[in-house]
Amino acid sequence: MKQTLINLLPPATIAAVLCFWAFAPQSWVEAPWTIIVVGLSVIAFVQLLELVFERHEGWRMNGQELATDIFYVVFGYGVIGFLSDALINSPLAELKAQLGIATPWLAASPFLVQVLVVMFVFEFGQYWMHRAMHNWHPLWLTHAPHHHVTQLNAMKGFIGNPIELFLISLGVIALLDVDLNALFGAITASGAIAVYAHANVRADPPIWYGYFFTTIRNHSLHHTALSYEDTRCNYGNSVIFWDRVFGTYREGESAVVGQDDRKRLSIREQWLFPVLPWLEDKQRAKASSD
């Protein structure tokens, strides 16, 4: 009975997030701080769940991991969020207005329909970007630092090279006509699913949830330390449905995660990772000339 209730925590959290946005006063919805508070509250809640319902002892949080995770959450909400809005969302919104692009059928749809359309459309793009990162070496160099994490925790989805973090944030949802509360509901619900998909929490949601949305079982297999080839599955960050549609879904779970002998990278190494081959070649050339 206790484990059944634990298994219901992810869908219950998503339901709570969506209920908040569905019934929140308009002044709260329009306030710039609300979406940040909701997102951070979900992260804090799931992080606390790790202390109570631990999944793997080897993923237990320590001070170094916590400090790194907090740095990336701040970086994600601040820098990546700003760049995505300034370089992608705002220009797309202007283009939408100039070209007269409209989706009136979506604007007239119920709240939950709008939320699901935004989630699945955004995740469709994320799926193909993520899949490309595992199949084209230049993109893999930006994404590899995320796979060098040696344990999964609630904030680990924020960790990675800045180039990858920006690329994976790209989307076309600014072209859609949706209510602000539905847009924020979709963003925070997707974020909550992704937080659980990276969390060290002993929750295995119901079959219906796992058919459409990513779980820690799906995503731990994507992070497996078995080999690089074994990570080329389950690309969905929060929506696993696209993996099922395009044949990249794999059943299973991995308690051991990481890449390249499971070497944990520092923040500096994560940021320099895409240019490390060039730096190493340069150092070798210098050593040869000396």
Automatic annotation (TrEMBL):
Q: Which Pfam families match?
A: FA_hydroxylase (PF04116)
Would the keyword Transmembrane helix be found if you checked this record's keyword annotation? yes
Q: Where are the transmembrane segments?
A: 5-24, 30-49, 70-93, 105-125, 158-176, 182-199
- Which subcellular locations apply to this protein? Membrane
Domain Fatty acid hydroxylase, by residue range, is 115-248
Record keywords: Membrane, Transmembrane, Transmembrane helix
Write down the InterPro entries for this protein, in alphabetical order. Fatty_acid_hydroxylase, Sterol_Desaturase_Related
Task: Look up keyword Transmembrane helix and say if it applies.
Answer: yes
What's the protein name? Answer: Sterol desaturase family protein
Which lineage ranks, top first, belong to the organism behind this chain? Bacteria, Pseudomonadati, Pseudomonadota, Alphaproteobacteria, Sphingomonadales
